[in-house]
Design a protein that fits this description.
Blueprint (H helix, E strand, L loop, with lengths): L3 E5 L18 H14 L3 E4 L8 H11 L4 E6 L6 H14 L4 E6 L4 H5 L7 H20 L4 E4 L4 E5 L13 E4 L3 H10 L2 E5 L3 H16 L8 E6 L2 E2 L3 H21 L1 H4 L8 H11 L3 E2 L3 E2 L1 H6 L7 E4 L1 H14 L1 E6 L4 H29 L1
Parallel strand pairs: 1-2, 1-14, 2-3, 3-4, 4-7, 7-8, 8-9, 9-14, 10-13
Antiparallel strand pairs: 5-6, 11-12, 12-13
Helix pairs in contact: 1-2, 1-13, 2-3, 3-5, 5-6, 6-7, 12-13
Keywords: Flavoprotein, FMN, Monooxygenase, Oxidoreductase
GO molecular function, one term: alkanesulfonate monooxygenase activity
Organism: Paraburkholderia eburnea
Amino acid sequence: MSVEFIGYVSHQESSEIHLPEGAAVNPPWIAAVAQAHEYGGFDRVLIAHSSASPDGLQIASFVAQQTRNLGILLAHRPGFTAPTLAARQLATLDHFSAGRAAVHIISGGDDIEQQRDGDWLSHDERYRRTDEYLDIVKRAWTSDTPFDHEGAFYCVAGHRSQVRPLQQPHLPVYFGGSSEAAIAVAAKHADVFALWGESLDAVRETIARVRAAAALHGRAEHIRFSLSLRPILAASEDAAWARAESILAKAQDVVARSPNFTRRPKEPQNIGSQRLLAEAAKGNVVDTRLWTGITALTRAAGNSTALVGTPQQVADALLEYRKLGVSTFLIRGFDPLEDALAYGRDLLPLVRAAVAKEEAARRAA
């Protein structure tokens, strides 16, 4: 796949500039946002996970029912479901979505967040568990005969599943985590390694680390890379930066009041957030147009760096990351529904046209 775009579907309308309101599960909102992404030409949408959020597997099934072609990327934390059961659940989702499912493995980088669901393993223990978990899941997806497994975290006897993913040999596995422990497991298991939106130099460095680790498993050329960003678009560059400042002003009030942010630790444990804060420490703008205003405000609460500019300027910035080896862009806006439509109309076609032109020139050469 030359370039892939992933959007984001939440269970209710909320963001750094929108306080969550109404029902925690809002089916009309979920359907509208999913259909907006399909209309806009996105390849997939991410359905996130936290210790407080509604069940993502059911939301994924609903999104599959509300769309026809849109892929689904379901965030999944190992450790709370038996791996054999998770394998059957994900394979079943693949059938109901007609082969549109993928899984985003997130082992968990915050002890307090994990403990809310009863998980008391240490950071590195969680990644060792994920390694074993994925060994079992993949074996359940592919084994033609009953198998046993005895490991540090799981013991299985005589397992054989009646349901296999439609996609062969298995669902695409996306993987999140920036620590050394995470990279070691991703190198073995991931089809796509996910990074948050850092500077060009930082992304180049991480891609090199992951490829070196993957080479130990003979997978250096098999692993792809995803980058998560929050594009802020406007008709002119000045208008785009003015919009960014307006977003920051609104976010200051929402972040102070929203439980999604007030419960966050002052000093994040996960390495990904620490790396984003290191980027924010370089200044309000890194490289040419990587804006860190929301990152600094939220203490790097997830995907929070933005590319600011006209659609062409932001497309050019994305293409610079693509030169480093990024083939997937996970993008979401601060106005989730409106921005999804704007990206589909104004941004995705520019990037795809540039990629098509480049590939045509390569074939001609």
